[in-house]
Amino acid sequence: MAAAHLPRIPVFVFPLLVFLGVHVPPSHGSPAPAPLPLTSYDPSICLETKCGGIDIRYPFYRSSATRETPDYKSNYSCGYTDLEISCQGEWPIRTPVIQLGGDNYTVLDIIYENHTIILADSDVLGVAKCPAVRHNMSFDDMWLYNASSNDNLTFFFGCNHTSGGLGMYQINCVGFNSPFGSGPSFVFTPDVQAPEHDLVCNKTVSVPVIKSELLTLVASNLDTFTSGGYGDVLKKGFELVWNYTDRDQCYQQCEQSHGQCAYSSSREFLGCLCNDGKSLWKSN
């Protein structure tokens, strides 16, 4: 029985097939159904850097490492908008600083493995022993949230009336100056119910501290707490955790496939920055 003969494919078709096979662009960090426009960017803005001994890398970024978008309408960062770190001071003494609620906080450490950043109020670090906090700690929770490892210290400044039994909580640190008027000032640990109705004061401020640091100090020597020990706890800082979700556009179009997200200063997701210098920008 004669073998069947398949029709021959014209020779000119083979180069076309090869061309199509090698020129289909691969997907870089964008599993979304509607692909983003492909262009290029300066990959140096995503490089890991150091400031004051602290490693700064995605999703954090240096304030000096921003670039203009392809349409030149705004700047973008390689990282989450609120996680901008400025490197302050003159070399070789540089200090990494992040702003929360308009106030400066010094970065003491970033633990990337468990998404934790340790911060201290920059105002208290410059004082030798007896710092006075001037503001509550506030921040937007789009990317950051309070860690369970924190507790709060509550300060009452410039009080003009006291009731009995509060002397052990009065700050008696040599060199302490209340930023909110004269009169005695007090500091209360979380296990003490602050007597707000028994104190008439100019200002009340509550700030986070690391719970384990506070417990260690109180357990070892409670008597030194109001004479400067509270300052040691403040200088150890507090912990925040940065958040990400696998349901947002940044994760689905970038991070899921090892890309890095570009954000505007107004927190808008702009596109994906890929490791090969290519970028995929969101359509307007």
UniProtKB/TrEMBL annotation:
Domain Wall-associated receptor kinase galacturonan-binding: 46-121
CC annotations in GO: membrane
MF-aspect GO terms: polysaccharide binding
Signal sequence annotation: 1-29
Ranges of residues in domain Wall-associated receptor kinase C-terminal: 198-277
Highest taxon in the source lineage: Eukaryota
UniProtKB keywords: Glycoprotein, Signal
Pfam families in the cross-refs: GUB_WAK_bind, WAK_assoc
Membrane topology: Single-pass membrane protein
Location of this chain's protein in the cell: Membrane
Predominant localisation class: membrane
InterPro entries the UniProt entry points to: WAK_assoc_C, WAK_GUB
Official protein name in the record: Wall-associated receptor kinase galacturonan-binding domain-containing protein
Organism: Paspalum notatum var. saurae
